[in-house]
Amino acid sequence: MKPIVILLLLALFLLVSVGAWLRSAGTRSSTVVLGKALADAQAEEEKRLATNPGPSPLAGLTYRDLPDGASLFRLSRDRVDTEIQLRVEEFRALSAEGRRRFTERLSIEDQYSLIQLAKRSAVFALRERSTEPCRIGLNALAALDLARMDPRDVTWAAAVLGFALTELAADRDQLYDESIALALPAMAEHLTAIREAHREGVSLQDWGYRVVKTSDGPALVETGYDDYAPGIDLLAVAVRGCDELASERYPRVAFEVATAIPEVWFGTQDPHLSETLQRSTGTALVRRSSTGSGEDSLDKQLNLLFIAEFPSEEDAEWLAARAPREVPGQSATVAFSSGRILVVMVSGSYEAGVPAAETVGSLTSAMDRVRHAVVHSPIAGSP
């Protein structure tokens, strides 16, 4: 597989998420230019740093190093949540000038930590059946400097909180009034527009998530827009498979349902490939990545585990036989079928000039562990 193909596939996965931003256009009237908002934010950040604003109130607090820090599916309260919540409460108690200085000292990374707290707070609210986490989440958004971030990220986080508020039948105006009063003018205006847009409630799927039940209570899992009506709980199978793969190389994981397996990962040009893949009753995806950084890190590697159900064992077996392939130094794919379940594992580099860290041999060894999880999963259940 050519490097450009891998880059395009990565872009495809990113655009699924960006689609939620685009669907939020009802809260904005300006034209969307992907990447421009972040470039503008970086320029504003450089101006901020030039003023020597002082130490950040969130110094040392980040979700970046938590394996599930970016997930709303497998999350539990962490010290980072507690510490950032305390900082948000401190922000709330400050004078108007104190709040301005608080916001001024936040780095761009700090701002996205507050965004993540807001999203996580929505899940905590659903689990606790309490609006208090939503209040904290909205106030976390109020602390942000809109000029130094992509406003759509705020809209996205507010939509997740808005869904929780709808589910809890909360007094939306009371909670928003508090956060709007705390915010700088641009953010106050943005939150006011969001509140009005959410008057009739929030469709969670429009923002790329769906609610699922877990042993810890409700959670949110990323969702695509393909058909998803499997006869077994594919997400549970994906979790078991992921747990079997737990490693220091790729500790960060994200889950998605209602996606599809791209044809490009199969080592065949058979004309029946497309129509066979389209017969899937549902597909779950696990994205695995490194938390490392630096020239020799694994953070430029694409690691995907697809688990799909098909109407017949013959479909799954036919596809499994056509998936294995390796393009030395670029990508590797392995697969197996178990009954009507097809499992495909893909690994490769998504940056030109960076070799793939895995081979068919190493993926086959990892897949043996996944096979054990799939074979011993229940064959029926509620998706």
Question: Can you tell me about this structure?
Answer:
Helices cover 46% and strands 15% of the residues. It is α+β, with helices and mostly antiparallel strands. The protein has an 8-stranded mixed sheet, sandwiched between helices. Helix 5 (108-128) runs antiparallel to helix 6 (132-142), helix 6 (132-142) packs antiparallel against helix 7 and helix 7 (151-167) crosses helix 9 (185-197). The protein is globular and about 65 Å long.
In short:
By secondary structure, the protein is α+β, with helices and mostly antiparallel strands.
**Major sheet:** 8 strands, mixed
Q: Give the overall silhouette.
A: globular
Q: Could you tell me how far the N terminus lies from the C terminus, measured between alpha carbons in angstroms?
A: 34 Å
For the residues shown, what is the average pLDDT?
84
Contiguous runs where pLDDT drops below 50 for at least 5 residues:
1-32, 379-383
Portion in strands = 5-15%
Structural class: alpha+beta
Feature tags:
single chain, 383 residues, alpha+beta, 8-stranded mixed β-sheet, disordered N terminus, disordered C terminus
Could you give the topology of this structure?
Layout: H1 3-23, H2 36-50, H3 79-93, H4 96-104, H5 108-128, H6 132-142, H7 151-167, H8 172-182, H9 185-197, E1 209-214, E2 217-223, H10 234-244, E3 252-257, H11 273-277, E4 282-289, E5 301-309, H12 313-322, E6 325-327, E7 331-338, E8 341-349, H13 360-375
Parallel strand pairs: 2-3
Antiparallel strand pairs: 1-2, 3-4, 4-5, 5-8, 6-7, 7-8
Helix pairs in contact: 5-6, 5-7, 6-7, 6-8, 7-9, 8-9, 10-13
